[in-house]
Design brief:
Helix content is 72%, strand content 1%. The protein has helices spanning 2-31, 49-54, 62-70, 85-102, 106-116, 119-132, 137-144, 157-171, 177-182, 191-224, 228-231, 236-248, 253-286, 288-291, 295-310, 322-346, 351-378, 392-406, 408-419, 424-437, 443-454; strands at 384-385, 388-389. A hairpin with a 2-residue loop joins strand 1 and strand 2. One of its GO terms (cellular component) is plasma membrane. It holds the Pfam family SNF.
Length: 455
């Protein structure tokens, strides 16, 4: 139960702030229907920065546009300020899009995903073709993967932590999304084949997107006569500062900007669908008699509540539990039992076939993730947003949110053992007996069984 509650809480917290990012993208999409783009910087060397910035005819720089126009950001987190109304409207639109797509559950979202999952590939391909034809694109690609890559970054714990976080997020590992969506599969669906295809496609897409992004960043570095490392920001800086700045330098810049932000929106909606599906499915399974036949009402209520909770994120202040799952799967359920459940769906496999997966599930993955977690905690430094340091109360709030998600795992584990008859080993045997007696009529009953196991 502890892992299940943690999945639910993580999905809720992520859904709140992730739709805020989609709202930023929607705002920039609307702003892209202007020529020239409103963040296209004017040469201010001759007129002076202040005169250029406050001139009605001038276009502010992309960074100032992000901070002072889009976010209307205050100087510190201690100055909250009012809700930024244009971002609130964009956030409302983002939640309307999510709610409309998920209103009828998988029947409606499945059709929407045909577009949101394929359109980004079309845009990435177009941006790649345009990017590699620009002067300086080679420098950007060599910085990305080549002779100019900074391999010393591999010794930075923050890089490994970010990489692990990205993989977990993009694959929805241990967040409940995989189980919620896979429950709609046919029972004998080849989940092994699907998992391999999804993992390869996910990682391949990231590499492919890197070429499209860095080819254009290389061109921007060429225009500014600066190293690529100085224009290749990370996170918000890349999506809303560096890349929009690069797009503003291209001919027909509004077209490329529109394509880019439509791509960001569709990518964001795909991820958001999985998170909201987890929340809605958990609520319906927890209260089946009351909510099972009211999917539209549940989805609408979830979207309204999360929209209201997201409003503090658009004020002017601006902007790790998988090892437990592995340990529980191995020591409580038992690796052999878990493998037999998989073979029930995909057919029997040889012992050699399972050797690699046993090593990954029960040794390699828990050990690697534990090392990354301990390493990142040991080298932890207080986060900053640009040059602005987060206040102590903000850092404390972040740690409290993390603890609030994770604390349910040990608490409910101890509670379950205390309430059960016999010791921990007897509880393990009871789980095995439950697994033996379980009969799956379809994938939904398999999902319910897995959900019961996670409890």
């Amino acid at each position: 139960m502890g892992v299940g509650i943690t999945m639910m809480l993580v999905s809720t917290f992520v859904a709140i702030y992730y739709n805020v990012i989609i709202a930023y993208s929607i705002y920039y999409l609307f702003a892209s229907f202007q020529y020239p783009l409103p963040w296209s910087a004017k040469d201010c060397n001759s007129t002076g920065l202040l005169d250029c910035f406050f001139s009605k005819e001038a276009r502010v720089s992309v960074e100032k546009y992000w901070d002072e126009v889009a976010l209307q950001r205050t100087s510190s987190m201690n100055e909250t300020g009012p809700v930024v109304w244009h971002l609130a409207l964009c956030l409302l639109l983002a939640w309307i899009l999510v709610g409309a797509a998920l209103f009828k559950g998988i029947k409606s979202s499945g059709k929407v995903v045909y577009f949101t999952a394929t359109f980004p590939y079309v845009v990435l391909f177009i941006l790649l073709i345009r990017g590699v034809t620009l002067e300086g694109a080679k420098d950007g690609i060599e910085f990305y993967i080549g002779s100019k890559s900074n391999l010393t970054k591999l010794t930075d714990s923050e890089v490994w932590k970010d990489a692990a976080t990205q993989i977990f997020f993009s694959l929805s590992i241990a967040w409940g999304g995989l189980m919620a969506l896979s429950s709609y599969n046919k029972f004998y669906n080849n989940c092994y084949q699907d998992s391999i295809i999804v993992c390869i496609t996910n990682c391949g897409t990231s590499v492919f997107a890197g070429f499209a992004i860095f080819s254009i960043l290389g061109h921007m570095a060429h225009v500014y006569q600066r190293p690529v490392s100085e224009v290749a920001d990370a996170g918000f800086g890349l999506a809303f500062i560096a890349y929009p700045d690069a797009l503003s330098k291209l001919p027909i810049s509004p077209l490329w900007s529109i394509l880019f932000f439509v791509m960001l929106i569709t990518l964001g909606l795909d991820s958001q669908f999985a998170g909201i599906e987890v929340i809605a499915t958990c609520l319906q399974d927890a209260y089946p008699k009351l909510l099972k036949s009211k999917r539209g009402i549940v989805t609408t209520a979830v979207c309204i509540v999360l929209f209201l909770l997201g409003l503090p994120c658009i004020t002017r202040v601006g902007i790790p539990f998988t090892p437990f799952t592995m340990i529980k799967m191995h020591y409580m359920k038992g690796g052999n039992r878990f493998i037999k459940d998989i073979e029930m769906m995909i057919g029997s496999k040889s012992a050699l076939f399972w050797l690699w997966w046993r090593a990954c599930w029960f040794f390699i993955t828990p050990v690697v993730l534990s090392i990354i977690l301990v390493w990142s905690l040991y080298t932890f430094t207080s986060p900053t947003y640009g040059s602005v340091a987060y206040p102590d109360w903000g850092i404390s709030l972040g740690w409290c949110m993390t603890a609030f998600c994770l604390i349910w795992i040990p608490i409910l584990a101890v509670w379950k053992v205390y309430k059960a008859s016999g010791g921990p080993w007897q509880v393990k045997q009871d789980v095995h007996v439950l697994s033996e007696k379980k009969y799956f009529h379809n994938s939904k009953s398999m999902y319910i069984y897995i959900f019961e196991f996670l409890k």
